[in-house]
Design goal:
Length: about 400
């Protein structure tokens, strides 16, 4: 609402026995409200009569030449006002034009997003209170409706519960939502911890190896003290594709893909972006002709790394298990994966049901997803969504 390069006025208060001082700078709604509160405390503690209140304030509180000039030009009229009327005129004169309407517009799109409900609501409510005494002032019912529309959708589902919806006061309602929000975040943290430790996927009574075992068998690194390298850029991926590189160790001409990598990720502390010069250097180091294509061994061939169930109409008991090596290694959800470059058998079935945890944009697991096999058979995992690669 205010220019970034212009200084904001600073309010200084030493004690309620001394008048507050407003230093030079732009006056914001928050500064104006705190200034009014400090002045009322000063007036009350000093026992200043109503007819003398504005005179005492305008003669001692302002250090901004613009405000002093405004007071000097209107002194007789201003000193005749009550303090409440003076503060209304002060706001009209020194706050941004139509500040209340602009603040109201800002509040209507101030969504919770990833912030905790307590942190977000305290920020939101403190700004709502700035509208008190203006045409945009809001009742508790209006605040409640607005908060409901702006909160996280998972928390909103809890707010629809009868035990919370039935709470009458705004304070009780928000306190209940703070508790619910903590419970949701605790559940998410617990699920993520279990997922990272390695979850088990069962199909028809058979259990696959956990993610942690796969990492260990593939030689992947689990050292939490190392710094993760930045994500690969499209240009870096193209370089690795063109020069038989690995998305995990980020080396060229190594003869393997990330699903078979035993080196793990490079340390991101001194990470240097990949370049054509690096590819040429790796080719020389490994005594490989620059630009040649190595034969990549498919380490997953013959292994069942995932299973699908084919169910035809009227034939519920007919089940076929097939190899899906195209998605091997995709359990490393935080990394880029080059396994889709492998030449592998694909799934051919009327429908494919993939059972797994899929995280949405709010970092919450959604339900099992079912995909039509008429879509491209390879799948990729983005940071927040599991979807077919078209």
């Amino acid at each position: 609402m205010y220019a970034e390069n212009c200084p904001v006025a600073v309010l200084e208060t030493s004690s309620s026995k001394a008048p507050p001082t407003l230093k030079a700078g732009d006056v914001t709604p928050d500064i104006a409200r705190r200034f009014e509160y400090a002045c009322r405390n000063y007036i009350a503690d000093k026992g200043i009569k109503e007819e003398d209140q504005v005179r005492r304030i305008v003669n001692s509180c302002f250090h901004d030449n613009r405000i002093i000039h405004w007071i000097d030009g209107n002194r007789e009229r201003l000193e005749a006002l009550t303090f409440t009327a003076f503060m209304k005129e002060f706001r009209d004169e020194w706050l941004e034009h139509e500040w209340a309407r602009k603040l109201d517009s800002k509040l209507r799109v101030m969504r919770q997003k990833n912030r905790t409900f307590r942190e977000w609501f305290n920020d939101f409510y403190s700004q709502v209170l700035l509208l008190k005494g203006t045409s945009e002032e809001k009742s508790d019912d209006e605040i409640r409706r607005l908060v409901y529309s702006l909160m996280d959708e998972h928390l909103r589902s809890r707010a629809d519960l009868e035990r919370i919806r039935g709470l009458e006061s705004l304070k009780q309602w928000t306190n209940a939502l703070i508790t619910e929000d903590r419970a949701i975040r605790t559940d998410i943290a617990h699920m993520k911890r279990r997922f990272n430790e390695g979850h088990t996927v069962a199909n028809n009574g058979r259990t696959s190896r956990s993610t942690s075992n796969q990492v260990a068998n593939n030689g992947g690194t689990t050292d939490n003290t190392r710094t993760r390298p930045p994500q690969l850029t499209p240009d870096e991926k193209t370089l690795l594709d063109d020069h038989d590189g690995c998305y995990r160790c980020r080396e060229f001409y190594v003869g393997h893909r990330s699903s078979a990598c035993t080196s793990g990720y490079p340390d991101g502390t001194n990470y240097v972006p990949l370049s054509i010069a690096r590819a040429r250097s790796d080719a020389t180091k490994r005594n490989v002709k620059f630009g040649s294509k190595l034969r990549v061994k498919d380490v997953n061939k013959g292994k069942v790394v995932a299973a699908t169930t084919v169910v035809s109409d009227g034939e519920v008991d007919d089940v076929e298990e097939v190899t899906v090596s195209a998605i091997s290694g995709a359990v490393d959800y935080e990394s880029d994966s080059d396994v889709s470059r492998l030449s592998s058998d694909c799934v051919s079935a009327p429908s494919v049901a993939w059972k797994g945890l899929v995280w949405d944009n709010d970092s919450l697991p959604t339900k099992q997803a079912t995909y039509d096999s008429t879509l491209h058979p390879y799948y990729t995992h983005q940071p927040t969504l599991l979807k077919p690669r078209c």
